[in-house]
């Protein structure tokens, strides 16, 4: 659940916690791996799901630092926690991404390439237009 440096969250298009809670409720047999960059989100889900929740690191410790919602630039490096989040999500049995998130898009692409995608995955992948390569190549001429 990308929230801090995420464009959709900045303009109010991110999903609320309820949609992710409902997704978790539809899969009670699974532990929940929460890949978030937001301390409030992490705390909320830890309280809601307890031992069922798994995170790479507590936000604000280790290499992670949440940024304020009104900050638009990323102030954190691509840390090992983000890389771990990426690969755990890519290999999860089921996955729910954040809309308009390049992080979630990358996971979705990885799941497809690795043939790990599941029919119950929930992520709307924003595909580039069919003529995107042609338009870029024309621009570079």
Q: Quick recap of the structure?
A:
With 141 residues, this protein is mainly alpha-helical. The chain has one domain (7-140).
Strand percentage, roughly?
under 5%
Provide the helix percentage.
Answer: 25-40%
| N- and C-termini, Cα separation | 39 Å
Task: Write down the domain tally.
Answer: 1
Q: Major beta sheet, specifics?
A: 2 strands, parallel
Strand order in the sheet with the most strands: 1-2
Order of helices and strands: HHEHEHHH
Helix count, per DSSP?
6
- What ranges have pLDDT less than 50 throughout 5 or more consecutive residues? 61-76
DSSP summary, beta strand count: 2
What would the principal axes of the Cα set say about the shape? Answer: globular
The class by helix and strand makeup works out as mainly alpha
Please tell me the overall pLDDT.
78
Radius of gyration: 16 Å
Which short descriptors sum up this protein?
141 residues; mainly alpha; two-stranded parallel ribbon; 6 helices; 3% strand; globular
Write the topology of this structure.
Blueprint (H helix, E strand, L loop, with lengths): L6 H4 L6 H9 L6 E2 L5 H11 L3 E2 L25 H11 L11 H12 L18 H9 L1
Parallel strand pairs: 1-2
Helix pairs in contact: 4-5
Report on this structure.
With about 140 residues, this protein is mainly alpha-helical. The protein has one domain (about 5-140). Helix content is about 40%, strand content about 5%. It is built from six helices and two strands. The chain has helices at about 5-10, 15-25, 40-50, 80-90, 100-115, 130-140; strands at about 30-35, 55. It has a two-stranded parallel ribbon with strand order 1-2. Strand 1, helix 3 (about 40-50) and strand 2 (about 55) form a beta-alpha-beta unit. The longest helix has 12 residues, at about 100-115. The chain is globular and about 50 Å long.
């Amino acid at each position: 659940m990308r929230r801090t440096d995420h464009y959709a969250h900045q303009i109010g298009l991110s999903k609320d916690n309820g949609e992710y809670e409902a997704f978790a409720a539809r899969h009670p047999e699974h532990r929940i791996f929460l890949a978030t960059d937001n301390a409030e989100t992490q705390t909320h889900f830890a309280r809601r799901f307890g031992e069922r929740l798994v995170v790479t690191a507590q936000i604000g410790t280790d290499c992670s630092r949440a940024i304020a919602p009104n900050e638009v630039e990323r102030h954190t490096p691509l840390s090992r926690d983000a890389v771990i989040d990426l690969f755990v999500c890519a290999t999860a049995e089921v996955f729910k991404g954040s809309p308009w998130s390049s992080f979630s898009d990358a996971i979705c692409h990885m799941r497809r390439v690795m043939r790990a995608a599941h029919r119950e995955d929930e992520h709307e992948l924003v595909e580039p237009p069919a003529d995107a390569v042609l338009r870029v190549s024309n621009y570079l001429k």
